[in-house]
Amino acid sequence: MWNFIQNQILAMRWLSDLVGRALTACGVDTSTRLGGSLQFFFFDATKIVILLSTLIFVISYIQSYFPPERTKRILGRMHGLAANTASALLGTVTPFCSCSSIPLFIGFTSAGLPVGVTFSFLISSPLVDLGSLILLTGIFGARIAAAYVAVGIVLAVAGGTALDRLGMEKYVEPFVRSIAAADPDSPELTVAGRLAYAKGQMLFTLKKVFRYVLVGVGIGALIHNWLPREFAVRLLGSGNPLAVVAATLLGIPMYADIFGTIPIAEALYAKGAGLGTVLSFMMAVTALSLPSLVMLRQAVRPRLLAIFTGIVALGIMAIGFGFNACAHWFI
């Protein structure tokens, strides 16, 4: 039963076969590089859109019970490690990319929440969510997906806690603290209202990330069928002791959400890149993208931005080295 769920529902092997038959019927030989690239592109793009639409709808419906005002009140009653953990877990049910998470980060900070708590949310929100868990399970298997989510949450909690201990409050730009945080009681939505909200969030998110999904799948298709395996192994394989560092630094300038990054990671992994190296690349792209750092600079001072970037980058590298060392546990 589990093999059926993973292969046919999560990995959608039936869809891959359907796409292959459709391309063959159109005269495309899927055994060639070009044909294989086309099958990878159409299959992965369709699969991600189907899963993404379903998951965002379900998650948004659940989220309708937890508007920002209620979330602020819940987190405001917590302190220390409990607050950081709750904030990181909250980030796992918010399907936002790193740039989309920053307005919520500003809202939480203006409401008086500690910087470390808001940074725990900022790290976990783009890094791990229920959608990525499902997609990663379909591609890499349940153990790797669960481990990725677990270490992502640990990184978010540890990073936020470290910033709390370092006393970074004074490096938040003054205008953030001066924003009046509205906290009205949201009217209770009906079931129809929640369904309408979930549909709106699904369409809004899909429109926003669709182009990144296509770009990510396109890059993945090129890597999967055109990048020489020897080159990928030499650059990102276990034989290169700095592969994790290279993957992390390569990921930071890019901008994509988790759904656009997974197809690239899948293709790199298939070419022989180390497991920890691939996960480091994914984490760097989603948590430390250059556009999000530019946006974050508007809310925090350079010192805090540099310390945040350094803590998260070092944490990502440590996770990557750890996964590479323990990769045999997941095979």
UniProtKB/TrEMBL annotation:
<feature type="transmembrane region" description="Helical">
    <location>
        <begin position="40"/>
        <end position="62"/>
    </location>
</feature>
<feature type="transmembrane region" description="Helical">
    <location>
        <begin position="209"/>
        <end position="227"/>
    </location>
</feature>
<dbReference type="Pfam" id="PF03773">
    <property type="entry name" value="ArsP_1"/>
</dbReference>
<keyword id="KW-0472">Membrane</keyword>
<comment type="similarity">
    <text>Belongs to the UPF0718 family.</text>
</comment>
<dbReference type="InterPro" id="IPR005524">
    <property type="entry name" value="DUF318"/>
</dbReference>
<keyword id="KW-1133">Transmembrane helix</keyword>
<feature type="transmembrane region" description="Helical">
    <location>
        <begin position="134"/>
        <end position="158"/>
    </location>
</feature>
<keyword id="KW-1003">Cell membrane</keyword>
<dbReference type="GO" id="GO:0005886">
    <property type="term" value="C:plasma membrane"/>
</dbReference>
<dbReference type="InterPro" id="IPR053166">
    <property type="entry name" value="UPF0718_permease"/>
</dbReference>
<feature type="transmembrane region" description="Helical">
    <location>
        <begin position="268"/>
        <end position="293"/>
    </location>
</feature>
<protein>
    <submittedName>
        <fullName>Permease</fullName>
    </submittedName>
</protein>
<feature type="transmembrane region" description="Helical">
    <location>
        <begin position="239"/>
        <end position="256"/>
    </location>
</feature>
<feature type="transmembrane region" description="Helical">
    <location>
        <begin position="305"/>
        <end position="330"/>
    </location>
</feature>
<keyword id="KW-0812">Transmembrane</keyword>
<feature type="transmembrane region" description="Helical">
    <location>
        <begin position="102"/>
        <end position="122"/>
    </location>
</feature>
